[in-house]
Amino acid sequence: MALTAAMFIGLSKTAIGGLGMVSVVLFANFVFPEAAKASSGFVLPLLICGDVVAVKSYRAHTQWQHLGRLFPWAGLGILGGWLAMGRIDNRQASLLIGGIVIVMVAIHLWRRRSKATAKGPGGEEVEMGYAFAAFIGVMAGVTTLVANAAGPLMAIYLLSMRLPKMEFMGTGAVFFFLINCFKVPFMVNLELITWESAKGNLLLAPAVFVGALIGRKILPKIDQRLFENLALWASALAGMKLLF
To answer: What is the mean pLDDT of residues 13-31?
Structure first.
């Protein structure tokens, strides 16, 4: 199960974004069923491994102006998530992670149904303001620290900016690489990244790289809608399991 979840991390970074939530809930449900908090820290180095491949693959398409808007607010959100994680037990963490996953699935479905998030009433282009970037940044920071589940929020922002496919991938790849590296000291402080967890990461890292490389190959060919639907519903079911 851990190897499957690790491969899903790699695939989510270079091709099928929805699989990122599936990997989160697989680790929380089956790999760490009695320690949901530990799963958040354990997964982080694996996410960074996937980020490395994604950045190498798509960095030339990064739109840095959008990252400059998001980073300060995401950092503030990470601080809030760090404070929350230091004050909750494993059962509360399960409820929080499950709730976040369900909300992220709902947001993702809403985003898909709302095709014109960056258009005005007359169909004209609308530039989203800094308040929107601040909201997305803070929420992404909290959710990425607590549950490594900020992908749908970032997708909402990037799609609202109406970025083409490759710019979307490049900007998202650099954002998550930098933000995940920024999270490491907080996870170490919470003792959710330890020498023991690092040994497990070393065993699973090859599966992440394999998944990421497969994602690079299949991205131009996959039926994105089908895979995204499967990933979303699998995430929703697993999130419900965490809640109940």
So the answer is: 81
What is each CA distance from 224 to 71, 99, 107, 174, 229, in whole angstroms?
A: 28, 25, 18, 22, 8
Q: pLDDT tens-digit profile of 40-66?
A: 899 999 999 999 999 998 889 888 888
Q: What are phi and psi of 39, to 5 degrees?
A: -65, -35
- To which residue do tokens 């895979």 refer? 227
CB 40 within 8 A of CB 97: yes
What does the pLDDT read at residue 123? 46
d(CA 7, CA 142): 25
Residues 129 and 135 sit within 8 Å (Cβ to Cβ): no
CA of 227: how far to CAs of 21, 23, 27, 144, in Å? Answer: 13, 14, 20, 22
Give pLDDT tens digits for 142-153.
Answer: 888 888 878 777
| Measured distance CA(72)–CA(16) in Å, rounded | 27
